[in-house]
Every structure is written in structure tokens, then in C-alpha cells.
Design goal:
With 259 residues, the chain is mainly alpha-helical. The protein has one domain (15-255). It contains 12 helices and 3 strands; from the N terminus they run E-H-H-H-H-H-H-H-H-H-H-E-E-H-H. The chain has a 3-stranded antiparallel beta sheet. Strand 2 (188-190) and strand 3 form a beta hairpin. Helix 5 (73-96) crosses helix 8 and helix 8 packs across helix 12 (213-255). The longest helix is centred in the last third of the chain and has 43 residues, at 213-255. The protein is elongated. The N and C termini lie far apart (43 Å).
Length: 259
């Protein structure tokens, strides 16, 4: 099955015609405000507006995602990974139309290349390769931190600095969404129409270049969660259409005289 195009649009995909707050935030970033400035994040309402229904669906308190930035880096990675894994479980359950399998699917490893949820995403064309790569790297960090309690106080910057040159290059490449610099990213498709995901990637490149790994992962995760929740909504709509079609066929068959 072909890879999902980066231009595929869902209800919460990458096109926005009215994002002044986000454009202003980008302008601030471009002038050096690359920090965990809560005033910038609080003025970021449109881009994560989908999170409230997603958090509610997963049984999480409101503003859980925003609150992750208040955690130390260890807790941030563990909790964010858990959030993405829960969202992945919900997406698979809805896409397959098998709610009875939720407990079984929830036990499947997230990033296993051949048997994990990401392998299902690839086979079912539910998530593009760049997004799967992002989750894979997050899982690698999570596994490194969670299996050694002495890492509880480690920062993401320290983690990256502990990698060899090849690993560090691979890590940064994935978190920069395979862009070498911001000049490769066009955030405006047409006059007044902005590519929100391209905007986030632009921001991530700037953040990684400033070694702001926590914020880069946080922003990158918005892309992941937006795509997942968009697929959940689309899958539900398709499942509903299928159910209605089956009911109509059944109703028609009942009304056809039998010989």
C-alpha cells in the first residue's frame, strides 16, 4: 500500500487559513525567543485546539499535554510516550472497527518494527514514515530513561550529548523532520493560507539548532497527535457510512418480494 502523502488533509491536518497567533509566535521565535516561555505557549490556542477532545477521549485531565512542559525531562518523556501510545491504541481500534480488541491492542509494543503498533500503522497506511520515525526516536529515549533509575535527573540535552556522532546526527535529523535548515521549509502555500505542520517543523528546526530538545519534541508531538486524531475521526466517519450502507441494503432486501 502506498505511503500516505504529507499533503493528505483531515479535519485536524495541516492546512489553516487563519492562524495569526501562530504566525506571531513564529515571528517571536525568529527573533530569539527560543525558550520555554509560557506566555508564548498560552497564546497558542488554535494549533492544539484538538487536544481537549482527544484528552477527554483518552480519559486525561484537560490541559494534560500543555502541562507536560512543567515536568522534568524524565517525566516529560515517560508521560508523553504514554500519551502517544494511548492515542495509537485508540487509532488502531477505531481504524480496525474492533472495539473488543482494545485490551489486546493496548498490550502491543508501540515501536516494534515488525510486530509493534508502528508496523500496523505502516501496513494500514495510517501514519507516514516521518511521523513513525519521530515516534521511534521517542521510544528509544523512553526505553533508555525508564530502564535505569539513575536517569531520573538526566536532561534531554545531556542524553543527546551522550550519543556518538552518528546517533546524534540521526536523532537530530528525525527531530528536524529531515530538514537541514529552515530555508528548506515553506510555511505559506498561498496568500493567507499556511501549512501548520510545515510551520511546526520550521519551529522544530530552530529549536534543535538551539539544543532545545524538550520543546522540539513537544511541538513535534502536536503533528503526531493531530494526525492520529484526524485519522480517528475519519475512520469513525467511514465506519458509520459503512454501517448505514449495510442497514440500507438489509432494509432493501427485506422489501424485495421473495420468489
Amino acid at each position: 500500500m502506498p505511503e500516505e502523502s504529507s499533503q493528505d488533509v483531515t479535519q485536524y491536518d495541516n492546512i489553516s487559513k487563519d492562524i495569526p497567533a501562530e504566525v506571531n509566535l513564529l515571528h517571536d521565535f525568529s527573533h530569539g525567543l527560543l525558550s520555554e516561555d509560557k506566555s508564548l505557549i498560552e497564546n497558542f490556542p488554535k494549533l492544539d485546539s484538538f487536544l481537549t477532545p482527544l484528552e477527554s477521549e483518552l480519559g486525561l485531565p484537560k490541559a494534560f499535554f500543555r502541562g507536560l512542559l512543567d515536568e522534568n525531562d524524565w517525566s516529560f518523556v515517560i508521560k508523553l510516550h504514554s500519551l502517544i501510545e494511548s492515542a495509537a491504541t485508540r487509532l488502531l481500534v477505531v481504524a480496525l472497527g474492533k472495539p473488543e480488541l482494545e485490551e489486546i491492542i493496548s498490550r502491543i509494543e508501540l515501536s516494534g518494527k515488525t510486530t509493534g503498533k508502528l508496523a500496523f500503522f505502516k501496513s494500514l497506511n495510517l501514519l507516514d514514515s516521518e511521523s513513525r520515525g519521530f515516534i521511534q526516536k521517542l521510544s528509544e529515549v523512553r526505553n533508555k530513561l525508564v530502564h535505569d533509575v539513575s536517569n531520573v535527573s538526566i536532561t534531554l540535552k545531556e542524553y543527546v550529548e551522550s550519543l556518538d556522532d552518528s546517533e546524534k546526527k540521526g536523532f537530530n535529523t528525525v527531530l528536524k523532520w529531515k530538514h537541514k535548515n529552515i530555508n528548506e521549509i515553506d510555511i505559506q502555500q498561498n496568500e493567507g493560507i499556511h501549512d501548520v505542520h510545515a510551520w511546526i517543523k520550521f519551529t522544530c528546526v530552530m529549536l534543535i539548532d538551539k539544543s532545545q530538545y524538550k520543546l522540539a519534541i513537544w511541538y513535534g508531538s502536536i503533528i503526531i497527535l493531530r494526525k492520529m486524531y484526524g485519522k480517528v475521526l475519519n475512520s469513525r466517519a467511514e465506519n458509520t457510512k459503512k454501517e448505514i450502507g449495510e442497514q440500507l441494503i438489509s432494509l432493501i432486501e427485506e422489501r424485495i418480494p421473495k420468489n
